[in-house]
Specification:
Its cofactor is Fe(2+). Belongs to the TfdA dioxygenase family. GO terms for molecular function: dioxygenase activity; metal ion binding. Residues 168-373 form the TauD/TfdA-like domain. The chain is an alpha+beta fold. It has a single domain (4-402), classed as Double-stranded beta-helix, CATH 3.60.130. It has helices at residues 28-41, 54-63, 77-81, 140-146, 209-214, 218-226, 235-238, 316-327, 388-402; strands at 4-7, 16-19, 43-46, 84-85, 88-89, 97-98, 101-112, 123-125, 148-149, 170-177, 184-187, 195-199, 205-208, 228-231, 275-277, 279-281, 288-290, 297-302, 311-313, 336-338, 346-350, 354-357, 368-374. The strands form six sheets. Strands 1, 2, 3, 6, 7, 8, 10, 21 and 23 form a nine-stranded mixed β-sheet that branches. Strands 15-14-18-19 form a four-stranded antiparallel β-sheet. Strands 9-11-12 form a three-stranded mixed β-sheet. The chain is globular and about 70 Å long. The two termini are 37 Å apart. 41% of the residues are buried.
């Protein structure tokens, strides 16, 4: 069956399906089509992959970045499993891995019997819950009775520390088991009465960061194109005591961030922080994406043009207010895509151009198990390489042009 690409019919304006792929035996030509679709549409739902082997999912991620280390975006096996600090898990959690394929994490909720790709004991997965993170969470009764929920937190799959741990180009998420139940309504509860409907349980919510940029005023576009954000050292430990906004977009400023001296790397961590552009440029389409991980931003370095001096904003309340002003108006029903994923489908998204959030659902809807992979990149978002299929095409053309003529 020939591989085909079909746009997702959604007002969000991004995403596509790929039909006819066999990811357990994927040719270079078919991979190139998938890679082009990914950079063009930003999110790809590769359908009917119910027999996908975990090793092949890992290898697929590696094909998007063939010179990368192959390590998970949050570190090696020990770091992925043991996200503990001061007796607590940080917000990236400590998810288990598929036996023998350490960089494929098992995420979801519910208890599963032994035998899942080599597991030898019952496996209990605990999902990230907004109830442990939001300042004023919904209670389970409200969620169940009203079918209401929240965006847990909009984020990029990235550690953003230390300098040199580059943000993954792509994330892949394979659906083994999905919950079943009526659609949910996301409440923002941020002083507005705004809700976002149609959240199919167990699916991830996505937002296009290029759309955020396009909708800004010309003045703000100029500013964010030339400005930078500085992230905290040990960022997820830094915010371990903080609470999130009910919208899932940022943190509530309560002064609960840990002192730098109390972080695992102490004051030395300040020498290893990441300072990155606010806008990340798609290396295929050249579209700017306003891609800022707001919950761990510590300073903003603002300038209005390429030759203007930087102005530093280091008051956290002002940092968050500035980012809220730039992005919160664009959190709207028509611009959210709930992943149209069914069991056996693999979703791959451009992690440098989309933000995403888990969407909690009532436990009565049943268990959820996903296989997730994102890997540290070989290139910085400040200096991105062209996609592999472009480089391979250029190399082939160069060889053809340099070949002796008959």
């Amino acid at each position: 069956m020939a591989l085909t690409v079909e746009r997702i019919d959604s007002p969000a304006g991004f995403g596509c399906y790929v039909h006819g792929a066999n990811l357990n035996d994927l040719s270079d030509a078919d991979f190139d089509k998938i890679e082009e679709a990914l950079y063009t549409h930003k999110l790809v739902v590769i359908t009917k992959q119910k027999d996908l082997q975990p090793q092949k999912q890992y290898e697929l991620n590696r094909r998007f970045d063939r010179t990368a280390s192959g390590l998970h975006g949050h570190g090696g096996k020990d770091e992925v499993l043991n996200k503990q600090f001061k007796g607590r898990q940080n917000i990236t959690l400590g998810f288990p891995s598929v036996p023998g394929v350490d960089m494929v994490r098992l995420v979801g909720q519910g208890t599963f019997p032994p035998g899942h790709y080599g597991t030898t004991e019952p496996l209990t997965l605990a999902a990230s819950s907004h109830r442990g993170f939001h300042l004023t969470p919904l209670d389970e009764e409200t969620m169940e009775k009203e079918r209401s929920t929240r965006f847990q937190r909009f984020h990029i799959d990235a550690q953003l520390y230390p300098d040199g741990n580059h943000t993954a180009r792509v994330t892949s998420l394979w659906a083994h088991t999905l919950p079943v139940g009526p659609p949910l309504t996301v409440r923002l509860d941020d002083g507005s009465s705004q809700t976002i409907t149609g959240a199919k349980p167990g699916r991830t919510a996505f937002m296009d960061s290029t759309y955020i940029f396009r909708e800004m005023s010309p003045q703000d576009q100029q500013m964010v194109l030339h400005s930078e954000v500085e992230y905290a050292p040990n960022p997820y430990e830094w915010i371990i005591n903080c609470k999130g906004q009910n919208s899932g977009f940022s943190l509530v400023s309560q002064g609960k961030e840990l002192p730098i001296a109390d972080l695992p790397d102490g004051e030395e961590g300040l020498q290893k922080v990441q300072r990155l552009p606010m806008c990340w440029i798609n290396p295929l389409t050249n579209e700017p994406a306003f891609q800022v991980h707001a919950i761990i931003a510590r300073k903003l370095h603002i300038r209005r043009s390429a030759d203007a001096p930087f102005e530093v904003i280091d008051d956290l309340e002002e940092v968050r207010a500035t980012l809220d002003r730039l992005q919160r108006p664009h959190l709207r029903q028509e611009k959210i895509l709930f992943s149209p994923q069914e069991e056996g489908d693999l979703v791959v998204w451009y992690n440098r151009g989309l933000r995403h959030s888990a969407v909690e659902y009532p436990p009565s809807y049943g268990p959820r198990m996903m296989h997730q992979v994102h890997l540290q990149a070989s290139d910085s978002v400040a200096d991105m390489e062209k996609p592999g299929f472009v480089l391979r095409a250029l190399e082939a053309a160069e060889k053809e042009n340099s070949a002796p003529k008959a």
